[in-house]
Structures are given as C-alpha cells and as structure tokens.
Amino acid sequence: MASYTPKNILITGAAGFIASHVCNRLIRNYPDYKIVVLDKLDYCSNLKNLFPSKSSPNFKFVKGDIGSADLVNFLLITESIDTIMHFAAQTHVDNSFGNSFEFTKNNIYGTHVLLEACKVTGQIRRFIHVSTDEVYGETDEDAVVGNHEASQLLPTNPYSATKAGAEMLVMAYGRSYGLPVITTRGNNVYGPNQFPEKLIPKFILLAMRGLPLPIHGDGSNVRSYLYCEDVAEAFECVLHKGEVGHVYNIGTKKERRVIDVAKDVCKLFSMDPETIIKFVENRPFNDQRYFLDDQKLKNLGWSERTTWEEGLKKTMEWYTQNPDWWGDVSGALLPHPRMLMMPGGRHFDGSEESKSASDVSTNSSSQTRMVIPTSKSTGTPQKPSLKFLIYGRTGWIGGLLSNLCEKQGIPFEFGKGRLEDRSSLIADIQNIKPTHVFNAAGVTGRPNVDWCESHKTETIRANVAGTLTLADVCREHSLLMMNFATGCIFEYDAAHPEGSGIGYKEEDKPNFIGSYYSKTKAMVEELLKEYDNVCTLRVRMPISSDLNNPRNFITKISRYNKVVNIPNSMTVLDELLPISIEMAKRNLRGIWNFTNPGVVSHNEILEMYKSYIDPEFKWANFTLEEQAKVIVAPRSNNEMDASKLKNEFPELLSIQDSLIKYVFEPNKKT
C-alpha cells in the first residue's frame, strides 16, 4: 500500500477538541509539514488548545470562517495547500435540537464551500472529511456486529443529518470532479481540552464542584469511548495510509452505558453514585447505541492503545489541574444546555425558566451571558417512542400487529380512512402523526380467493388503487410504509422446479396469473417499485399459534376433507411479525420475501398436527386436477428464497423449526 506524504496541510476547526490534538501531534512528529489552522473560534474552541504548537516555525493560525469562499480560496492558493483535514463543525446534539439551521450552515454549507474551493484551485491531493458514527443511526441493542463502512446512513437528529448531508457532498465531489476524498466516522472521543458540554468533562467538572451528575433518561444508552491521543494517531494513520475514495470507521468494541460512566467518575472522586446521580428529561430523541466495525482501519496498522481506566484517570487529572481552562462554563454544565452559536464568546439560550441562583454560578462579563434553565421533569422519562399507524383493523395481521405493539409498548392507532380515499388518509396522518405506517389492509376474499373472481372491481379498488394511494400519501409526508403483500404471485416452473431447493428471489418477475387476486397483487407490487418509501413484505400461506383462527393455514387444511400435498414456502406470523416491526425501526425498504427459509408440504404439517394436537386425526390427499374441480381459481405453489431476510436476521428459523417452536409446542396436547 503506497504511503502519502503531504507538504502543506490546512486543518479546519483545529482550535477545537479533536483537531487540536491532531494538529499538535502532526507538528510534533513531522517538522517538515507546514500546518495552517483555520478556525473562527466559536464557543467550543480555545487557542490555548494549540499552545504546544504555537512556537513551532511550521505552524500558522488564521482566524476565519470556512463559510467564507474568498478566504478559503485565498488560503489554498497563498499557502500552497495540498491537503485538507476538515474537522470544523457544530457537533453537540442538544444544540442541534434548538438551533438546527446553524448546523446546516456550518456542517453542510461550510463543507460545500471547501469542496468548491478544492475544485476551483485544482491543487488538492487529499481531502479528509471528518464525520461521525451518528450518521449510521441507532444500532440494534443486541447486535454483535457493528456498522461497517458500507452500512446505510440513517441519521436521527439534526446534527447527524447535517453530517450525513455533508458526506453526500464529499462523495459527489469525489465522483463528479475526481477530488481525492477520504471520509472518517468516529465513536465518542474524550480527554483533555474538551469543552464541558460533552458528557465526560461535564461529569468531571460537576463532580469537582460537588454538584449532581445529570443523566438523560434512564442512563441505559450505550456509547463507545476513545481516548483523544488514540484518535489523533488514527488520523495520522488515515492521512498517510488511507485510500482515496474510502471511508474509515474510527471505533472501539469497548462499550459503556452512560450510567456506568457516571459511576466510574463517582469512583474517581470517592462519591456515592446513589446520591450524586440525578435523572433528568431525555433528549427529543436519544439513540440507544452506536456500534462500529473498525477492522478496516486496523488493517492499516492502527489500534487503540489507552484503556478506559487509564484514559479516564488522565482526563480527570487534567481537568483538576486546569479548572479554569474554559473560563465560566456554568451554562454548559446544565442538563440541557442550549449554546447560541454567535461570535464573541459563549452564549446560552434562556428559553427555559431560571432555577435558584445557588445551583450554578454566573459571570457578568461582556463575553458571556447565562440564564440557568430548569428541566421540565425531574422523573426518568421514557425514551421517545415510535408511533405506528396501522391499516387493517378488522384483518388478521392488523389485529396481531396491534397486540405486538401493546406488548412492546409502542403507541399505535388504527387508520379510520379508507385506502382509496386520499383525503381521509391525509387526515389520519395529520391527526395521528405516526413515525411509520403499516398497511395490512386489502382484499383476499371470504372464505378464500375465489371471491375475488366475481368481485374484480372491489379487488382492484382495495389491492391496487388503495395501496398506491396510501404509498403516495406516505411519500408526501416522508413516511415509510410497511406493506404486507403476498408471495402467491409465483408458481413452480422449469427454472424453479418443485423439490429443487431453487426459490424465487426478490428481483424475479411474477409468473402466476391463475387467480385474479394474484394478478392484482403482482400488478401493485410492480407499480410500488417506483416508491422508495415502501417496504414490501411477501407473505405466503400465513400460520400462527392460534389454531382456532379460520384464516390460519393449518386451521384451514385441518378442516378440509382432502388436501393436495405440495411443498410450499410459508410464513409463521408469531416469528415474522415482530421482525416486521424491527424492519420498520431499521427503516428497511424494497421487496422482501417474508417467509421462513425452506419449504414444508401439506402432509408434513398435518403429520405434526397429528403428533402434537390430535393423534386420531386423519386426512386424504387429492391431485391438483381433482382440486381444480372444487375451486374457482387455481392456487399458487412455489418456493421463495428467504436468504435476503435471513442475512438481515440470522436468528430466523427454518419453516419446520419455526412451526414446532411457535405453533405446535405451545399447543401440544399429546
């Protein structure tokens, strides 16, 4: 792997926390590199952070804003800049909820100005864009594999959304104009020099003052923490060894809950966590966990060196030795600070009512004004919930979904509007304000799909027009629609013969037109491909543990006088409906074969029924030709390839194992 050697580096935001450690490290280790720092000295910047570099002949500081195109172009040309390390950004999530436009201006527009200057001057050999792990969104709590560099970006707050937006610009300039870009996404960083709006320095300074340590929510949120010098070394590695066009996660597998961080700080100060920790109102949205796969960076030769205990002790010692490094930071130590990003020092939003003056000291200097906010709640609020809007109130799947939501504590409401009535759907969304919409409505026919053959207009209205209307309304309101569809749009053929184990994949074109029901479902699925806000779940021959439900496939065939005996893919709802909720949380989209892996035949199911439920049960088989004489429309028989779903949810059971675990064992009578 070729090593890159820069000559003249522009580091943006280097009077801030992470970038100052990177700058000081490069000045210390590479006297031949010229380092130019551009920083507007916002509230979380401090020139003292750059004291180790100040007297070096290869260091230059320029006070200015990356949003100034003239200044940026001037610096690139006059300083012969060949490398940019772009750290400058607004980064505190709490602030982004109160002043999101400023984040857009700094994080997106500022990045755009830099990129355009690089394009115009045509002299940049490396552009390292510093992003965050938060662009991936929340990681599942029980995930054992972290987000890798190709994982989908699903930001959940204004801060991470602007960082994701900036990444898109960086990628676009790399592809369209050939800029030599590299992006990094890092876990939480801690250590000396960090402005105390962040968790660890805030806890340390509060503990030094004998004040309570405020924890958002219940403190169960998990974060990964890296010591600042390890991170500076990671950027040194990316600068010299990173490949153009690549993304690198800077992370650690060592995770800690916020409550445990607070307890570790209490331990360092010999304080009782039971008395010093205070639970306060949560953020509007507080991701439960960020978890990264950092193997790609390790392959370049980097590794974490500092243990948590060692790093926390070093950080505590630095703050106790430098208590006045940031001046008066009382406003930043509040549970929910709102820093107003204005020049001339640190300012605090006084939108909340003041508490007693004894809680936090104030400073009347002209540089800083503070009003002390109070939390609206002293309890331990729940993490902000999802809210589902479900269509299909009277249907089987809609009812099961509502039961699952109740068990999981997810607020939901059933839609009142009819799918084909656009105005009523809009009213539902405006009144309920859901985060996701589940469509479990539609016409399958009573008692079976033969009904659709004589009610074609009703079938079209519900299955095609209604579904498309709901998808379109959801797209207008930027909502993901989870759409329960069917896999009964395929039949065994020469390329997918019965018993071959070759199943139909998501991209395969439907080939079954035997029933009008299947025709409408295939038609609407094709049309829904134009909607990028839809997740289509192909259900087949649904089964549940409720053996009294007449819609249950097992209930149906156990009541027939005769059954065919053909292997089919099927859906065990007890296992797969909870997965549909998880898919909504992950904002998954596109078409999914929503079946358990493998196939099972009618006879195999009835053998299980006889073994577990009724040892006296008997049945008879007949052929497809014989079946055709007693039904109106032919039935679909096929095998679906469930590997895409299995890859996303490795714990998904095969159809036989799922039937035993979720259906027959709970109902066992023999």
TrEMBL record:
NAD(P)-binding domain residues: 10-315
Protein's recorded name: UDP-glucose 4,6-dehydratase
GO biological process terms held by the UniProt record: UDP-rhamnose biosynthetic process
Polar residues compositional bias, start-end: 357-380
Entry's EC annotation: 4.2.1.76
Pathways involved: Carbohydrate biosynthesis
Cofactor(s) recorded in Swiss-Prot or TrEMBL: NADP(+); NAD(+)
Endpoints of the signal sequence: none
Keywords: Isomerase, Lyase, Multifunctional enzyme, NAD, Oxidoreductase
Ranges for region Disordered: 347-380
Uppermost EC category: lyase
The reaction(s) this protein catalyses: UDP-alpha-D-glucose = UDP-4-dehydro-6-deoxy-alpha-D-glucose + H2O
GO molecular function, one term: UDP-glucose 4,6-dehydratase activity
Family affiliation: In the C-terminal section; belongs to the dTDP-4-dehydrorhamnose reductase family.
Location of the RmlD-like substrate binding domain: 387-557
Coiled coil: none
Residue ranges with Basic and acidic residues bias: 347-356
